[in-house]
Amino acid sequence: MRKPLGYIFFIVGALLLSFSFGRYVSGALDADRARAAWESAEAKSTLALARSAMRRAGAREVIAAGAPVARLVIPRLALDEIVLEGVGDDELNAEPGHMPGTALPGEVGNSVVSAHRDRHFNHLDAISVGDTITTESGALKQTWVVVGKRIVGKNEPALFPAKDPTLTLTTCWPIRYIGPAPERLIVTAKPLAAPAKRLGQVASTN
Amino acid sequence: MSYRRLFQLALIAAFPKLAGAQFTTFIPPRAQTSDSAKAVMAAAERARTDSSVKAQLAHMKTWVDSAAGLPPAPTSPNPAVDSVARLPIRPDSAAPRPRPPLSTDSVAGEVMPMARRDTALESRGLTAPETASALPLLAVTGAGLLLIGGVLLGTVRPSRNRA
Question: Are B146 and A55 within 8 A, CB to CB?
């Protein structure tokens, strides 16, 4: 009896471990692809051109899920990641995700970026009020300062519209928790200064 | 007019470029400086009553309040003097709205007003995205099962075949 039970446990355990490991590996590969796409100057200029044209036409921007939309740098956490559009399983498995329908970092409104606590935001609890965050989105580069950090229930409303540029980072809480975490960590940041043009764009427009 | 002056004028007329090169510096008359004490007092008074300074302070408070999740404070009933129009403005709905921030996010470098873009968020608020991942649980469970399975298989005594 022990032998067949041992085999069953062994096989099921190996399958679960393989699945988890495979998801982590595929997420890392997707993250590499997203970074390569973001660092491609052509992709960036195409994105900026499309956004500018849509804004001129007065159309609401619809960005494809999984497209790289911003770069997020948090020096305190040694975090430098590309933010993908969408907060679905595939996007969050690869990189932090930008919640569709919210402002892009640096634009007027609340920009919501979420990530898993076991991957990109696994040290988000170490961030403190006063720490700085840098984002690049399209042609905007923005430095933020953390002004708030709170924990809410997973069903508690935590994301509100803002009249000024706001950056909100969310992840699950507690960070070290086995199983579906019951709470959310919400970090709010406000811009240190007005968005600055990127150097390349300044040179091209002068 | 003396012969000497006539000779100089003739030289200037004959060699205008050379003559023009001699006039390279212009020293403007010194502007009258205002009394520094009066200037400081005037600047302080202007800062006290200037609506733009008040607006900056109000925005700073709104900024902090919004971060803390507090409702915005009501506007002060005290009239302020607009530094541009030099007219008292009323804190009611007829007062001109502040201009929206300008966007520099444009390939052509043109400046256009930015609208609020968080259209997905409602005033009553939304819950944070579902970032709970089952992968850590699956990994721990898998490792546990693998360990138990290994122990069970390792402790199985081999059957003895009797000849």
Answer: no
User: Cα B107 from chain centroid?
Assistant: 20
CA–chain centroid gap for B133, Å, is: 36
Question: Mapping DSSP to helix (H, G, I), strand (E, B) and coil, where does residue A98 land?
Answer: strand
Query: Does the beta carbon of A179 lie under 8 angstroms from any beta carbon of chain B?
Result: yes
Question: A82: distance to nearest CA of chain B, Å?
Answer: 17
pLDDT at residue B135, as a whole number? 86
A188, exposed or middle or buried, with CB in 10 Å at 0-12, 13-18, 19+? buried
Q: Which two tokens stand for residue B102?
A: 């300008």
Is the CB of A4 inside 8 Å of chain B's CB atoms?
A: no
Q: Is the pLDDT of residue A113 over 50?
A: yes
Are the C-beta atoms of residues A121 and A96 closer than 8 Å to each other? Answer: yes
- Contact at 8 Å (CB) between A95 and A82? yes
Q: What is the DSSP string of B117-139?
A: --TT--TT-BPPP----SHHHHH
> Residues A41, A47, A50, CA angle at the centre, nearest 5°?
140
Say whether pLDDT at A173 is over 60: yes
How far is residue B123's CA from residue A35's CA, in Å, rounded to a whole number?
34
Q: Please state whether beta strands A97-98 and A79-85 pair in parallel, antiparallel, or not at all (unpaired).
A: parallel
Chain B residue with minimum CA distance to A6: B149
Instruction: Flag whether residue A64 sits within 8 Å of chain B, measured between CB atoms.
Output: no
Read off the pLDDT of each residue in A113-121 and give the average, rounded to a whole number.
92
The total number of residues shown for chain A amounts to 206
Mark the ranges of chain B whose per-residue pLDDT is less than 50: 57, 73-114, 163
Q: Is A52 on the interface with B (CB under 8 A)?
A: yes
Q: Please identify among residues 67-86 of chain A the ones whose CB lies closer than 8 Å to any CB of chain B.
A: none
